[in-house]
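User: Please run a holo structure prediction.
Assistant: Happy to. Please share the sequence and the ligand.
User: Here you go; the ligand is adenosine monophosphate.
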Amino acid sequence: MGSRTPHPSEVAAHVRFGPDDQLAARDPRDLSIGPGDRSRTEEATARLLGTLEEWQERLYAAGTAGSARSVLLLLQGMDTSGKDGTVRRVIGAMNPAGVRIESFKKPTAEELAHDFLWRIDRVMPSAGETVVFNRSQYEDVLVVRVHSLVEESEWRSRYERINAFEAAAAESGCVLVKVMLNISPAEQKERLAARLEDPTKYWKYNPDDLRERGFWADYMAAYQDALARCSTDAAPWYVVPADRKWYRDWVVANLLVEAFRRVDPQYPPADFDVDEQRRLVAALD
Ligand code: AMP
Ligand code: MG
């Protein structure tokens, strides 16, 4: 474990996934770049969340004044990998007024009647927004590929279409942070078992998850291709070690801080005469 707290850009570089990287070589229990044990990591996360809250308000403020910049955090991962937990713990620290969460489930009949990017395009961030995708367009090259829901030629064509779509979004001011929450099968088993031990967690348990678990190797092959083919400079992929929730939260918080830092949103200057308004307010009854 590291003895100092690394800069968010170092954390981002450590978990970035490139076109030649292997998902199988990424350890879901890796803690190597963290600030230390659980309590030190949680303290570091708390500081990062404070920073994030401020950055996110700046982004929102800049959006009201005409800046087109926005941030999109895209979360993918196997069942129980912690997509919902990441939203609660990391995004929960921000002001809900400027944040929107979008979850993508099995497509509706209307969605299926359109191109796979149709439902995505409709909910992309607008100026100043911070948006989280809980699952995403990548389901259309993951679950869809694993279960042969469309022809192979169709899903194969989607990697390039996703890249073009994301490049256009980046071009128009959106910073994309694509996170794969990487859990081990052993950790998934623990989490499924824990849900069955606690009646307040039954609602999170889905018997279908056991069937999907049976396709683990196929999912990993599909993730490997999605991550390698769609990790671009405009929209890089990050593989986050997710067996420890506290470490996962710390890494994702770093990735978001780094994204906001790159945007560097500024509070807009007043578009009125501040001194005059001060005098008017002071003279109020
Ligand atoms: P959950 O996120 O666990 O509530 O489940 C949502 C389910 O919807 C998952 O099983 C996803 O694989 C599935 N899903 C999401 N997008 C698609 C898609 N484009 N095609 C088929 N299934 C999808
Ligand atoms: Mg599920």
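The first strand starts at residue 16 and ends at 17.
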